[in-house]
Design goal:
The structure is a homodimer. With about 140 residues, chain A is mainly alpha-helical. Chain A contains seven helices and no strands.
Chain lengths: ~140, ~140
């Protein structure tokens, strides 16, 4: 049962064997998927990476290899390490904002007289947040 | 001037040419760096990836390729895509916590009578946060 060559065997111009390691993960209707992976890892390295895994985990591995290859093609210098740095910076920013907001609550609880009603109406206003955060720095 | 073979040429058991593409990024005192990269990408793919970049960007590219190779060795199924998913989940969680805390400030500003002094002393206590957040859900 070999109705047609998979995208990998087509690209490599070879016969698609019945137990082809690529066939389940690189269907012929999506040739670009193998082209990207081949460009970054090469066919033999992808085959090796898939073969060392139990078959029920190979789909996820092929998907993640494809994603990493796409990141590397889009950003040949940093690949997905660039995205990781960006996300880590984003977490740092949101955590800092959260700490400031929690400090704001604690301050209001302990010094209600310092918080005038017109300031209270400015919650969510960036200039208010900057002013409030300066209390805790 | 070729005082010694680089880590790549040593691993590949070949002469290290004067203009070796690997030599500046794989010094002989860190052989593991090339072993990891070679295991995931293969030597010719790494050479190709480095050669297509201007020389002032190759150090960063070699570093990021090494990091990605390490992630893939540690997690052969998801590689650094696993870390990206984890970081995205972490951002989602912190953003949700921030939104809840901001809503808490807004609620207190508009309903000061609902916030009793003994509740105020519980700022930062997770059970208080859960109780407070239920007001806004």
């Amino acid at each position: 049962m070999n109705p047609g060559r998979c995208a990998a065997c087509r690209y490599l111009r070879r016969r698609c064997p019945p137990a082809c390691i690529f066939s389940p993960y690189f269907p012929p209707n999506n040739p670009q998927r193998f082209v990207s992976i081949h460009r970054i890892y090469g066919a033999s390295n992808v085959a090796k990476l898939l073969q060392q895994l139990p078959s029920h985990l190979r789909t996820q591995a092929a998907d993640s290899l494809y994603l990493e290859a796409q990141y590397r093609i889009e950003d040949p210098v940093y690949g997905c390490v660039g995205l990781i740095s960006l996300l880590q910076q984003q977490i740092h920013d949101v955590e800092r904002q959260l700490a400031m907001t929690q400090a704001e609550i604690a301050f209001r609880a302990r010094h209600p007289q310092a918080v005038e009603s017109n300031l209270l109406n400015n919650v969510g206003n960036p200039s208010f947040s900057n002013q409030a955060s300066s209390w805790f720095m």
